[in-house]
Amino acid sequence: MLTEYFYPNTFGGSEQSVFYLIQQLLKKHIDASVLTPGYRNPNFTSWRKIKIHRFYFPLSLESKKYLSPFWYTNPIWYIYTFLVLFRSVKKLQVNIIHVHSKSFIPAAILVKYVLNIPVIVTLRDYQTLCPYGLCIKKSRAYQHCSFFNFLMSEIPEYYQLYNQRKTLLSWMWTTLTGAYSWFTSFFLRFFINYADRVICISKKQKKIFVSNKIKIFEVIYNTFLFKNKSTFFQSTGRIVYVGRLTHGKGFDVFFNAINEINKHSRLKVSIVGTGYLKKMLIRSGTPLQSNISYYGQIPYEKALAVLRRALLVVIPSRWEEPFGRVALEALAHGVPIVASNRGGLPEIVGKRYGIITFPDEKHFTQAILAALADIKKFRGFIRNDWSRIVHDFQTYPIEQYYRLYQKLFVYEKI
């Protein structure tokens, strides 16, 4: 398994998805391990029985933040990771390479042709189509933008939404790095077509990639280690938001909807995550402020502890979520969901485990109120459908990967 980050450097849903996948593959006696940069922290060679092979990387992650994508999208990185992967495959006698971070795709494809090793690529975002992803929307038939449109439309929109210091220098930097990122996406897209199998993590994500002429083998959902439904925790009565505090994640939609509801009734709210829209919490002068518990960026286990005691989880994403891991984690703890109709979210929530609506203040206000009125009904549906939920998001995805590995292993032996 190739991934840019892994324990103890787990910052997002992608790393957690890889962890749960490997953990359950080991139970099926598949010898799966991780290859990841060491970030000057080579001591963690295993975690919960998962073998971790770390290679030298000149930077550390003491700040607990992602590094700039440039570190993983430059010629030196591509050459270096090819050499590291070539050596690792030979040393560890690897039969299948499974890529979970797009920056490893070129190295994996080159090693495939040199050593005749099958390569699987699981796509976990849209950055191989467009670095910003603002063009990936229904009004454009989900088509990625041309370089001209990227310069003339995508970069200005991104700059307006996300850049907090609007100066000539920041505009020039955004334009330069954006242009570089577009060509990086083009470069990675070229290599994807040479993978033996390309996997998407939701039906909607597959639809988007297929519309951009990327051949997808199948859809395999992210997984989670579900426990018995009898372990559901008693709700603290809080509405919970977990995710980045940004425009794309729709944090402003959530916060404005809560403020609107709070004009008539006081709601207890917990917010987990960080981002530039944190300023909305500081500037807000509404009475809701005293009812907010803001945790900021906290470790994954602590975030789960907040989520599992929620009354309702809200996911107002504007962008087409490739999957929507927070929705899965809420479901795994018996918590109903209000989510936007973007990406893979409707596939998780459906009509029985919460409400799907448009990502705007009016619709989310109505949906939150409706979900609160029917909260017992949704919790009951989750309990009644527990066996099917476990099958769809734990048993079946592992079976899909198991069959895929077996098929490619036999192919590699021929």
Count of runs of 4 or more consecutive helical residues: 14
Order of helices and strands: HEEEHEHEHHEHEEHEHEHEHEHEHHH
Anisotropy-based shape? globular
The class by helix and strand makeup works out as alpha/beta
Please give the largest β-sheet. Answer: 6 strands, parallel
Helical fraction equals: 40-55%
State which percent range the strand residues make up: 5-15%
Give the rounded overall mean pLDDT.
91
What is the oligomer described by this structure? single chain
- What's the total count of β strands? 13
Spatial extent as radius of gyration: 22 Å
| Stretches with pLDDT under 50, minimum 5 residues | none
Q: Output the strand order for the largest sheet.
A: 10-9-8-11-12-13
Distance between the termini: 23 Å
Would you write up a description of this structure?
By secondary structure, this protein is of the alpha/beta class. Strands 10-9-8-11-12-13 form a six-stranded parallel beta sheet, sandwiched between helices. Strands 4-5-6-7 form a four-stranded parallel beta sheet. Helix 2 crosses helix 3, helix 4 crosses helix 5 and helix 7 packs across helix 12. The longest helix has 28 residues. It starts with 12 loop residues before the first helix and ends with a helix. The mean pLDDT is 91.
